[in-house]
Design a protein that fits this description.
By secondary structure, this protein is mostly helical. The protein has eleven helices and two strands. It has a two-stranded antiparallel ribbon with strand order 1-2.
C-alpha cells in the first residue's frame, strides 16, 4: 500500500508562478464587471444616443460606427456596444456586415414607401380614436408642444425643431395610453429620419408645423373626419416631397466634351 504523500506546510509550499497574473486578470475582470453592473442602462444609453443623432440628422446614412470608438465614448466594453448595435439593427437603423462592421442604415426606395404606408395606417387609426377623447389637459399639452415647435422654428434651432416635429406624433400616441403603439411609432419615425436624409425631403419644417396646428385644431373641434384627413395629407405631403423617383439623366446632356 502506497502511503499518501505528506502535506506540505504553508511555509514549504511553492507558490504557483502564474498565480499573480491570474489574480491580477481576475481582479481586472471583476472591476470591469462591477462598473458595467453599476450601469445596467449602458446599452440603452448607447441605443438612445445613436437614435437621437439619426433623428436630429447628426448621423448620416452609411456612417461607420466603430465599436471601439463608441466603447471609449461611453466608457464601456465592446460587448455592450455590440449589444446596442444589434438592437439598432433589429430596428433597421443600423446594418451589420461581417467584413464592413456596423454602419448607419441606407434605406431603399421600396423600404421608404413601405414605412410611410405603415405610418399612414397606424396614424389614421390613432387620430380617429383620439378624436372626442382628449381631455382639456391633453389639449393643453398639445398646444404647449406646438408653442415649442414654433419657438424652435423662430430661433432656427434645426436639431430642436427636428426632434419636436417628430415627437408630435409620439405625444399623440402616448395620449391613447398605448406604450406599444408609441414605441412602434417611435421606431418608424427614426427610420423616416434616415429616409429623409437619403432622399432630401423638400417638405419644410414650417409646413409640418402648420399641418400639426391644423390637426390639433380639428381634434379640439372633435371633427374626426377632418383630423384623419389632415393627418393623411400631412404624411402624404412629406412622402411626396421625397425624391423617391430621381430623374434619370440624359448622358448626352451630362457628359458634354470639355472644350
Amino acid at each position: 500500500m502506497i502511503s499518501p504523500e505528506p502535506a506540505m506546510s504553508p511555509s514549504t509550499r511553492k507558490p504557483h508562478a502564474a498565480a499573480p497574473a491570474v489574480a491580477s486578470a481576475s481582479a481586472s475582470t471583476r472591476r470591469q464587471r462591477s462598473v458595467e453592473a453599476a450601469r445596467p442602462d449602458s446599452t440603452r444609453q448607447i441605443v438612445e444616443s445613436i437614435t437621437a443623432a439619426i433623428v436630429e440628422r447628426r448621423l448620416m446614412p452609411g456612417t461607420k460606427l466603430a465599436e471601439q470608438k463608441i466603447a471609449d465614448i461611453f466608457k464601456v466594453s465592446r460587448t455592450l456596444v455590440r449589444q446596442a448595435l444589434n438592437q439598432l439593427s433589429r430596428h433597421h437603423l443600423v446594418t451589420l456586415e461581417a467584413a464592413r462592421g456596423a454602419r448607419v442604415a441606407t434605406p431603399s426606395v421600396e423600404e421608404a414607401r413601405q414605412v410611410f404606408e405603415v405610418r399612414n395606417m397606424l396614424e389614421a387609426a390613432m387620430i380617429r380614436r383620439l378624436c372626442g377623447r382628449l381631455t382639456a389637459t391633453q389639449l393643453g399639452e398639445l398646444r404647449a408642444h406646438l408653442r415649442d415647435e414654433k419657438a424652435a422654428l423662430a430661433r432656427t434651432d434645426i436639431t430642436g425643431r427636428t426632434r419636436l416635429l417628430a415627437d408630435f406624433h409620439i405625444v399623440l400616441a402616448r395620449m391613447l395610453g398605448n406604450d406599444a403603439l408609441a414605441q412602434m411609432l417611435g421606431e418608424l419615425l427614426s427610420r423616416c429620419s434616415l429616409i429623409a436624409l437619403m432622399y432630401q425631403s423638400a417638405h419644410s419644417a414650417e409646413h409640418s408645423f402648420e399641418e400639426h396646428v391644423a390637426i390639433v385644431d380639428a381634434l379640439e373641434r372633435g371633427d374626426a373626419r377632418a383630423a384623419v384627413k389632415l393627418m393623411e395629407d400631412h404624411l402624404h405631403n412629406v412622402e411626396r416631397n421625397l425624391q423617391l423617383d430621381p430623374r434619370v439623366p440624359d448622358l448626352r446632356q451630362v457628359l458634354r466634351p470639355v472644350n
